[in-house]
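Sorry to interrupt, but I need a hand with the structure work. Can you supply me with one protein entry, sequence and fold together? No commentary is needed, just the two lines. Leave the record below and I will have a look.
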Amino acid sequence: MNRSKFWAFALVLVTAIWGWSFVAKHNLQGMAASCLNSWLFLLGGASLLPFALNSLLRIGRKDWSVGVAAGVVLFVAFAFQTTGIQLTSPSNAGFITGLAVVFTPLILYFVSGEKTSSIQLTGAVIALAGLGLLSARGFEFHVGDLLILLCAVFFAAHIVVLAKGRFSGSPLAFAVIQVFTVGVLSLAWSLGAGEFSVPADVESQMVVVLLALLSTALAYVVQTKAQTVIPAQKVALILLAEPVFGGVFGYFLAGDRLTSVNLLGGALIVFGMLISELRSANQLKSLIFRVISRKPHVKNEQNAS
């Protein structure tokens, strides 16, 4: 297995971890969002610090400013996500968070004037239509779904900050600065609101540690390294697996039972996200042709056998 395939597989495992994290965070409803984020990011940052210390000592003030700015945006995103997860289902949280892939090119257009193609706009419309179906419960839109939607917008903004920010240090040092920024801001929020506490029981403590090590520390290391050997568009396509894993774990571990309308909405979100990552109609035609052309190929193989 070459390096590209290895890190692509590792990134798929990360999306599975993130999918599981929606269920794990949902089950920690006894902890305030500010407190949970404090533990996850401070523990996650502490576990990465020994590996990034030399790089951190060599970077300048400008790099620190870029890293902290990216961390502030990430803090807002996780504040919305962790709060929203407690007010909606893990499946909904997973699908709606994935809309960050759709919002990214739109924010790039407004920030730097980068053109958004008609195919990307089409993907955005499809995904937003899916959001409406996924969240449909009569004519009521859950507050938790709205918070997760805002979280997706800020995750997209975070991607834009990373793309436009000038950071000359190592990717690992960049990740550590961001993680600690989220942790420190979350701790200040938690202490100011009187919400900081130690997880009450051993089971909750173990879940918090696992989330800190796997969905925060390990995930950031893998994503940082994967993006050095895998094209950005392929990374984005791999990340589309996150809401799917969120739905699967939500079904088997959290008892989520989506209606046929909700399932259609989830499927439209994933389809819209996929479409939004294509740069032209020709890529869409090529994708459809490849999918269609597989069937005769399989049949021929069966006939030959």
User: Anything to note?
Assistant: The chain has a mean pLDDT of 83.
